[in-house]
Structure formats: C-alpha cells, structure tokens
TrEMBL record:
<protein>
    <submittedName>
        <fullName>Putative lipoprotein</fullName>
    </submittedName>
</protein>
<keyword id="KW-0449">Lipoprotein</keyword>
C-alpha cells in the first residue's frame, strides 16, 4: 500500500506542469518531463494511465492535469467511485515504472 501511495505522490508531482497543443498522451508526457522526471518514466506512467482509464476519463484527466493544472489528488477525489477504481488500477501498473523521486518520508 505504501508503494501505491509513493507512486501516486510521484505521479502527482510529475504531472503538475503545463502541456502544449498535442494529444492527451503527449501533453501528459510533456508535463511529466517538464517536472523533471525521465522521459522513459513519464512514458511508462502515461501508458499505464491510457491502458487502464477509459478513453473519456483519460482525456478528461489530461485536461485537468496538464491544462488546468489541478492537483492530481484533488482531481481523483472529485471522480466517481468507478473512475477512482480505474485510477487505482492504473497506479498498480505505474508501480512498474522507475520513478526518480521515490523518497521515503
């Protein structure tokens, strides 16, 4: 459970920058990279999101995180229970990504 929390926190920190006028996937990857995460890690995180979230939720998430710069935790809490479960499933897959900011606090 602690790993999920760390992955979620690193994910939140990595995705708070600004995105360009690219598709949702590229916006999220660029946002993550802009926050200092390795490109390979960012691609892994966003691939996990895209694989586990519905297309609609993935697109809405890209808008909220990249364009509107909403805090990820706050955004996830605003979702329906089903959508929260999709994020939980995505976080499970994100655990395989090598995060560079996994400090143990």
């Amino acid at each position: 459970m602690r790993t999920i929390t760390l992955a979620g926190l690193a994910f939140a920190a990595a995705l708070t920058g600004c995105g360009g006028s690219k598709d949702s996937h590229d916006q999220l990857v660029d946002t993550c990279i802009a926050e200092g995460e390795a490109p390979e890690t960012c691609a892994c995180i966003v691939d996990a999101m895209e694989a586990k979230l519905s297309p609609d939720l993935f697109k809405r998430s890209a808008v909220a995180i990249s364009r509107e710069k909403r805090p990820v935790g706050e955004y996830i809490l605003s979702l329906s229970d089903d959508e929260k479960m999709q994020f939980f499933d995505a976080e499970q897959e994100m655990e395989t990504c090598e995060l560079s900011a996994t400090e143990d606090e």
